[in-house]
Write a structure and sequence with these properties.
By secondary structure, this protein is mainly beta. It is built from no helices and eleven strands. Strands 2, 4, 5, 6, 9, 10 and 11 form a seven-stranded mixed beta sheet that branches.
Length: 127
């Protein structure tokens, strides 16, 4: 059974930084990518970053690429999302998800391409 467990969310002040973790288990795909999404209140879920497990290629949404950093520790089966210079508009539930296969260079996969999802972790940024 595939399990993705996000952690690291919380209440932070604007301008601060946060590192979210996504611990994965039970993934039987030969190659896969882990993506991070967020959903703000009243808005659609949007993809923000993705990393290929194999070559650690990374992909970002244009709106966050200057402040978000995705990384992975394959030995721990954990993917991280560091968010710097937090803004109130970063307030959202952040989800990780796994995609069977690898993301294509220069292309951030869409939500429907992912196979399994975590339950999310809440990030609230105060002004």
């Amino acid at each position: 059974e595939v399990q993705l467990v996000e952690s690291g969310g919380g209440l932070v002040q604007a301008g601060g930084s946060l590192i979210l973790s996504c611990a994965a288990s039970g993934i039987a795909f030969d190659d896969y990518a882990i993506g991070w999404f967020r959903q703000a209140p009243g808005k659609k879920r949007e993809g923000v970053a993705c990393i290929n497990r194999g070559d650690h290629s990374t992909f970002y949404a244009d709106s966050v690429k200057d402040r978000f950093t995705i990384s992975s520790d394959n030995a721990k089966n954990t993917v991280y999302l560091q968010i710097d210079s937090l803004k109130p508009e970063d307030t959202a539930v952040y989800y990780c998800a796994v995609l069977n296969g690898e993301a294509i260079p220069g292309y951030l996969p869409y939500e429907y391409e992912y196979d399994y999802w975590g339950q999310g972790t809440q990030v609230t940024v105060s002004s």
